Amino acid sequence: MATAYTPQATGTGMRARVQRIGGYLAAMVMPNIGAFIAWGLITALFIPTGWLPNEDLAELVDPMIKVLLPVLIGYTGGRMVHGQRGAVVGAVATIGVVVGADAPMFLGAMIMGPLAAWLMKLFDGLVEDRVRPGFEMLVDNFSAGILAAAMAVAGKWAIGPVVRTVTEAAGDAVGWLVDHDVLPVASVLIEPAKVLFLNNAINHGVLGPLGVQQAAEAGKSIMFMLESNPGPGLGVLLAYTFFGPRRLRPTTPAAMIIHFFGGIHEIYFPYILMKPRMILAAIAGGATGVAIFMAFGTGLVATPSPGSIFAYLAQTPRGVGNWVGVYTGMLASAAVSFLVGSALLGFGRLAEPRTETGEDGGEDGDRTQDRAETDDQHGDETAHPGGRDTGADGVRDDSSRPTVTLTERADPS
């Protein structure tokens, strides 16, 4: 499945396989990026710590992140596999993993949507041309309904618990790294877990309680900054702004505003899912920031929620050392993430997919297509003895051409 944002990768190597997987994941998320932005704006504005706190409007936040967005992803994944029928069964199947979940089940949606659609596609292939005339609609509707219901139950009883187990395991792994004082290495787990939308589970389920204990004793804690640091995400978005795919660059300024000022980190996750190698940039930036935080011995007094620059300003304790350490680490993490991300994008050379002719997409690809069209036109001209203005009888028609009179030069002799 190739889209304007996720062109089909070519080749058979491991790199191409990883690119295809990332392309499939991104193709499920990127068409719904508008819904993510809408949720980000509502969250940044109306939650209790937002710009315009409103208790009634804040009730939109949880249903959108826990139900609407996963269902949209499952719907899109199903549509990729089997059109509209796949989209319908994929959306219903996704409800099975969404109901009762404490964390957003984006990973479950990415599994259930395509899986249910694939099973629907198999069934349709088996009964094709075997249904008696007049019963097609009955078979189509009931087969989709029965399969969707069965997959929703399977999602509730089977897939949902597996995804929750993965979430808990990621949280336990981060907790182990924290207990053994290897905090920079924690970014190796935290950043990939964030991209899978497990950020809230890690931050509020593991790091938050540990930070509260440390803050009660020392008045500040570095735990509050391990996951909430907006620097790595800002660096990734900056790399996309300058060196990302041309079609994607116009979307990054709004994402940066929502991410850095609004504190909604989920807005940059699809950009990493589109090119999984970009997770290395986030890891490098996160580890850099944590190392600087540790070197300055700094921390925050409470969880910065949401993780925006303004929340950091509000939670930074007094003292020049604390302020220098917090914002030096944030800026350094953004810079490292930007540099690594830019290198991973080849400073623009690797952002566009390579065509089958080996040339990069974008403007070079357009020029290649233009040259091919020009060659076709020349081929059409040479296919007829008279060129482009040849009539049906093969005689060249010069009636539309201007008449040119040549003056004969006198013989010098």
Main traits of this protein?
single chain; 413 residues; mainly alpha; 16 helices; 66% helix; elongated; disordered C terminus; cell membrane; membrane; transferase; transport; phosphoprotein
What does this structure look like?
The protein is an all-alpha fold. The chain has a domain at 187-378. Helices cover 66% and strands 0% of the residues. The protein has 16 helices and no strands. It has helices at residues 14-29, 33-46, 55-58, 61-98, 106-127, 136-179, 183-195, 199-218, 223-226, 231-243, 252-261, 269-274, 279-296, 309-315, 320-344, 363-382. The longest helix is centred in the middle third of the chain and has 44 residues, at 136-179. The protein is elongated. The model is unreliable at 355-413 (pLDDT under 50). Residues 352-413 are annotated as: Disordered. Its main location: membrane. Residues 364-400 have a biased composition (Basic and acidic residues). Residues 21-346 form the PTS EIIC type-2 domain.
Number of helices: 16
The run of helices and strands is HHHHHHHHHHHHHHHH
**Which sheet architecture does the biggest sheet show?**
none
Shape descriptor reads elongated
Content of β-strand? under 5%
State the gist of this model.
With 413 residues, the chain is mainly alpha-helical.
